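U., I forgot to send this yesterday:
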Amino acid sequence: RGSCPDDLVTRAVLRSWERCRGGGLGDGEFRPSDGVVTTPKLREACERNSRLIAHAQGIMEHVYEQIRASDSLVMLSDPRGMLIHRVGDPELVSRAQKVALQPGAIWDESMRGTNAIGTALVEQSPIEIVGGEHFLGLNSFLTCSAAPIFDPQGRMVGAIDISGDYRTYQRHTLGLVRLSAQLLEKRLFESEYARELQLSFHPRPEHVGSMQEGLLAVSCDGNLLGINPVALDLLGLRRSDLGHYDFGM
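Result:
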């Protein structure tokens, strides 16, 4: 089990460590191979999340090109933290196998302790876990940044992560995964409502077409079918309000 002074970590990391301690994690022996599903189970998970993977692949390849020289991996998980797609440097892939950073491995916080994917899924917020902030010492050679991904209905469907050796820490990585998650959510929204009227808006016209734009999906008879988080914020609405608004005459 690693250690990290409480005054040097974020509140989210402290909450995670408290959850891990409360669950008795680290009291017994943990092997990286624990929590790695069989090939058939992985295949089932990939089929179940095929739409998410299809939209994420191009984004992950693009992100990897931005960080290719940093000895890093770009990974995608499902909602319970199972890795379902990975792109990365061959050298780190070899090291990553030792801690099960591989498709089929479940990085749920209750199993693997404080880690970017598992903790981002619990906190439902982007997070960065650097070196010794990992609860289990065997993961402390890593620096990981992850952001949860939400579908057009606001359900959490997974997380996107960049992991690498803590000695090659890059300050911009958390922002990169946050932007990647937003782009993936935008593509999921556009795909979900491809047959509907989609409206883009922002108080500042120059932000239309960017990650800051609000998106609405409206049926041909004027019913409001979908709204992205940016639009909710801009309009001061809650997702539960959707059924109360339409564009009908």
